[in-house]
Specification:
alpha/beta, about 140 residues, about 20% strand, 5-stranded mixed β-sheet
Length: about 140
């Protein structure tokens, strides 16, 4: 018997994956989702430096897209082949993952490894946080 609980909230996913501008070919099965803040050109330069540091090519080895602060997305709607996911300023709950997490921690879920970290602006402003991320990136990729 189903019961109705008026206090239970279901968040609707409202961003159509087909509307995203996904860059890259994903040859190394990495997906990067980044929160778009202010001028994203300098943020993209930082991401490209991190990608190069983990010995990946931005154009061929990964998929990348920006998400707006209001975006909610279901990962299952993305028809991409990936097994590693990096979130820059994007919270797991904003992409349909209901998990407990800490930033800059490797989370393993079935066939997916995930690292959620601060936004690029926050990483650039706080070297300690960037160092903590780098340590986890080395474990996952190098």
């Amino acid at each position: 018997m189903n019961t109705y609980n008026e206090d239970q909230v279901y968040q609707l996913i409202d961003t159509d994956p087909n509307d995203l501008n996904i860059m890259g070919q994903g040859k190394k099965k990495l997906l990067i989702l980044a929160l778009m803040e202010n001028s994203h050109e300098s943020d993209l330069a930082t991401i490209k430096k991190l990608v190069a540091a983990i010995k990946h090519d931005f154009e061929s080895d990964l998929y990348f897209t920006w998400l707006q602060p209001k975006d909610k997305l279901s990962l299952s709607g993305l028809k991409l082949n990936y097994n590693r996911l990096l979130l820059f300023g994007v919270k797991p709950e904003d992409i349909g993952l209901n998990i407990n997490y800490q930033t800059n921690t490797i989370i393993k879920m079935e066939d997916l490894s995930l690292i959620a970290t601060d936004s690029i602006i926050q990483l650039n402003a706080n070297p300690k946080v960037k160092t903590a991320l780098w340590e986890k990136l080395q474990v996952l990729f190098l």
